[in-house]
Amino acid sequence: MKIRHVLTAIAAAALLAACGGGDDNNGRGGLLETPLAVSTLTAAQIDASTASSGLQALSGKAVCDVRVVALNYATIGVQGESANASAALLLPAGACANGIYPLVAYAKGTDVQKPRTLANPSDPETFSLVAMYAAQGYAVVATDYLGFAKSTYSFHPYLHADSEASAVVDSIRAARAAALSLDAAFSGKVMLTGYSQGGHASAAAQRAIERDNAGEINVVAAAHLAGPYNLSGSFKLTNAIAGYQIFIPYLVTAWQRIYGNVYSNVTQVFKAPYSNYIETLLPSPTLNFSTLITSGALPDGTPNAARDALFQPAFLNDVQTSDSSGLIVDARKNDLLGWNPKARTLLCGGAGDPTVPPAVHMNVAQADFSSRGLTNVTSVDVDPAIRATFGIGGAAPTDPTSAAFATYFGSYHGTYEPPFCHAQARALFNGFR
Fold it and tell me: Which domains does the chain have, with CATH numbers?
């Protein structure tokens, strides 16, 4: 047995002892299949891709090759029942082989494609993790969540904080279990991050770990990127966010399945024809963000027009005016305010984000943490860098009828913002690795 396996086995035994034995987690995080090596990306391949895309200015050149491994692991569902989820494990290799790596646990952004897995080096989100973290000497485990890829769970509990947290926590356990058979060694230091929905999930995971699993998982830093932390407040906005016709039906139908209190009949919330199939639309086995709209499965148009085509006026009015609305009650359960992060924590967002506006989420969360005197939580606005890189003369387009406006704000949340926030996250993590 190699010394690295011995070290990993000792670390695993110590963790189990710290938790009172091997059965405390009821098998959660256990591997359900042998870890599957998908491919290895060489540093040269990574550099060629980051150079051609322009990402290299933020990622830097690759120091390591990266092994991509697929995991299938045990976790729990929304009621604590047995479930499974899959994940990508990204391991530094090549010049970084035989290292002892800190582990970054990543939670992905909103996904509408049920078959999609992050254990795919061609996936843009996966490649960003390769370039920004794994090629720089971090091991990364990135969960696919419940209801995606190899998960047999019957639905995806979208923006449900507790099950997001359990999927992330159990992915960390699965990564540690996989290390034993992959000749990989982790240092024991864990960093948490995620983007968009993943920012909500990574914050939920930090809260859960620091509350319940601190003796098992040593979170040394966390960076939550463009996450919707203030869900209850967001529903009081007069104008709909970009992507409203996808994100809000996804959330409404998921929370109805979890809590059962959003509506008694789907037609109370959704207009026809959407009420006929909306409860089983997301995630989709075949449709992506674009084809959900172009196929007519969800309405097109401005965010406000799409909202009004999709939802019943009485439901919208109730959400806006009543604090006893089922949706508002559920949103408060899934807000990520009112807790006290213990590890060094960064919130990142861009002021021009039309989907997860920092004024509604990041700034509210930062003010909430600061109100209790927390000095370990800081936030950063990457909008100046986005405007300098993608704007016109350093400014965002202002004519809403122009193609430039549509391109800029249509690309802001999904394309422009993530790499700048990942760069901020890695800068933080580098101080704790």
Answer: 3-230+339-430 (3.40.50.1820), 238-334 (1.10.260)
